[in-house]
Amino acid sequence: MNRRRFLQGCSAQAILLATGPALLRAAVDPVPGDWLARWERRILEESRNRYCDRETGEEIGWLVSPFLLGFYHGYRATGDVHWVERFLEWTDACVRRIQRAPDGFPGWPKREADGTAGGFLRDSQLGEAMFLRPVVAMSAEILNNAALTPKYGAKAAGYIDLAEEIFEKWNSRGCWRELAKGAGIWVVPEFGYLPGTDRWSDGYLRRATTGFSHPANKQNEIARWLLALADATGKPVYRARAQAWFLTMRTRLRWQPGGNFLVWNYWDPAGPWDYNPDGTTRHWVGVHPNGGYYAMDVDGMVAAREHGLVFTAVDIGRLVATNRDAMWNGQVRGAKFRRIDGGPADPRWAETPGVLWTALVPYNDVLQKIFVTSHDPASWVGLSVTPWYLARLRG
């Protein structure tokens, strides 16, 4: 199990932590009667895998967060405290496994985290952001709910403290870079430590100028975690950091010729750290052939809009037009989506060159109809998306 399985259904990764439209405008019956029961059977069955007991690095995001999001939205969809209990049990299983790095900060390090070389132990900012976003959201739910606070409030407050400490970790490790005109970006650090030691590798001393910019989908996941922290704490620093990334993201959107459609690259260089000595970029630049990454980007842009940051209603309309008019094959049953740039499908991702951008379902009847017709509530991606959709219908 890895991020590829996660991305196979990433058209449904629209787990929005902000309040969107009060009601979904349904073009079809918006509440399929058996979705909740089918989802519950699947998430209980899959939870026996107990990823919370062993995953570290990036995988704590890809493999633990779908369950935490499922439990969180399961509670929001049903009001059943059983899902709160399951959420806390999984979160505690992860928190018990925290390790402290040479700088004293907590994390879940792994060799070669984020795909970097060197054999050192490293934390993964992406993995931690994906894991902590539902943790922070559930903690805020608990602390704002008089029925939940007496029993769970102290634990929830501790989780938020942990998330704030991890934010400070990435700051202190030189992973945030300010760009022009208020924009900003996060980088993967190029240092680590060997197990059983208390010393960083040599790269630690160069941490302010080295690194490698995360691709857009990872930046958007980190920004959504920061939005959750802003919602939970009211501290402006988290909102400001998310806004800085969204400013960067918006500058990377470009028009496709001949229509009201948008396209953007999977990765773009952001500063001198992203170039080799000969001037070439350290990563290829272009549209990724796996459409799931773009669904994650849209999740971020919609979350930004719902928080009143950077992206406008016009931008949301352009994203709807891109997914509906430029990418969709026009069939509700048997819906398929082509690449965002209209290019040929890569055989490695022949089934997902483009996907439904489910974050836009609350904003367009056609996309909602496609979703309701095609969504499998008992799929892997349905673990988190099914209760998200039902919770939004509940209001």
How would you explain this protein's 3D organization?
It is built from 12 helices and 9 strands. The strands form 4 sheets. The chain has a 3-stranded antiparallel beta sheet with strand order 5-6-7. Strands 1-2 form a two-stranded antiparallel sheet. A two-stranded antiparallel sheet has the order 3-4. The chain has one domain (3-394): Glycosyltransferase (Alpha/alpha barrel), CATH 1.50.10. The chain is mainly alpha-helical. Helix 7 (216-233) packs antiparallel against helix 8 and helix 7 (216-233) runs parallel beside helix 9 (292-306). Residues 4-28 have low confidence and may be disordered. The two termini are 33 Å apart. The longest helix has 24 residues, at 149-172.
| Helix/strand class | mainly alpha
Q: Within the CATH hierarchy, at the fold level, what is the topology? A: Glycosyltransferase
The dominant shape is: globular
Number of domains: 1
Mind describing the biggest β-sheet?
Answer: 3 strands, antiparallel
Major β-sheet strand ordering? 5-6-7
Which stretches are poorly predicted, pLDDT < 50 over at least 5 residues? 4-28
Order of helices and strands: HHHHEEEEHHEEEHHEEHHHH
Report strand %.
Answer: 5-15%
Q: Which CATH class applies here?
A: Mainly Alpha
* CATH A-level architecture: Alpha/alpha barrel
Fraction of residues in helix = 40-55%
Number of helices: 12
